[in-house]
Amino acid sequence: MPRTTTLDCPGCPPFRALTFDSLGLVKVVEAREKQVAVPRVVDRWGEPDSSKCVLAVSLTDRKSDPLLAVARKNGQVEVLNPVNGDLQAAIVNINDTDIRSEENAIVGLHLFAKQNLELASRSCTLMTCSTKGNASVKSIELTNSSTESICVGSSKTWSVCAGGNITCCKVDGSEKYALFGGKGVEVNFWDLDNCSKIWNAKSPPANSLGIFTPTWFTCATFLGKDDHRKFVAGTNSHQVRLYDISAQRRPVISFDFRETSIRAVAEDINGYSIYIGNGSGDLASVDMRTGKLLGCFTGKCSGSIRSIVRHTELPIIASCGLDSYLRIWDTKTRQLLSAVFLKQHLMHAVFDYNFNSEG
User: Fold this and answer.
1) Residue (of 202, 211, 287) closest to 251 by Cα position
2) 344-355 confidence digits (pLDDT tens)
3) Residue 168: which of 204, 207, 129, 195 has the closest Cα?
4) Domain limits of the chain?
């Protein structure tokens, strides 16, 4: 019998979201009613397979030719149509490495949106980064078939770390810069045009007891869409850090949040506040101008939060994680609006911003 939430959920505005789980399934959740909507699963893409667990996703949500990239545990990267789930391209071993995919899985994925799709030769540009720090930018031909796609044009491949494991990767709004960080890897900042490192974080000093906290970044996001200089990173030692590459190499603001590792972080559209989720299911919003906690979201999750996404138009955020629920929250009141049980451990979620409930 499926688990249910004990809270009364008032419902939410119309939306469409895609969720990605540990068995490789993509589920489409929609709420269509105009006033108070109840979200439901309306479609499911793929068949259950633990080797196809979704590790990273990227969506270009433009009105014409939207694309969705999905990186799986078996090393395959798929490009799908986010409207109907049709396969547009499939790439195997995109980083050209001989290491087994389990040891060098893709942890960073970005589908570039600022490009022109020609009718004669449709292609997309992908940036990927593996656990061992192998990053690449390649243009892939869209074939509309299950056969392996080929690389078109020039490609770039470089290493973003000499040791340690990369666990988080993020590309800024201009798609010219990217940051990387991980276990034993301080956050570093790269120019994607030249594949050159332009900034590297410095480890915080030891505390008053002389104890040095080992480097272990778990998630990161840019604070604003138009400013690549400021970004927020979460650590395994339940710290949230704000960096400004134009100011200094150490964090501008750093604070602890609860007692478990930070597993997800997302920026708000206002450009100064963020949403953070940790391994024990705590979800909160923070003003990064001061580092002050704005408040926690009412309705505790029962599992580790793995993804938080903010809707660009509606005053809602979505969170999902290992308790198998997709939850919709009100950003103003921080109340739980709705919860959908999706059976599998959820790894990621994205909003379809062009969704029309009347379409």
Assistant:
1) 202
2) 999 999 999 988
3) 129
4) 15-352
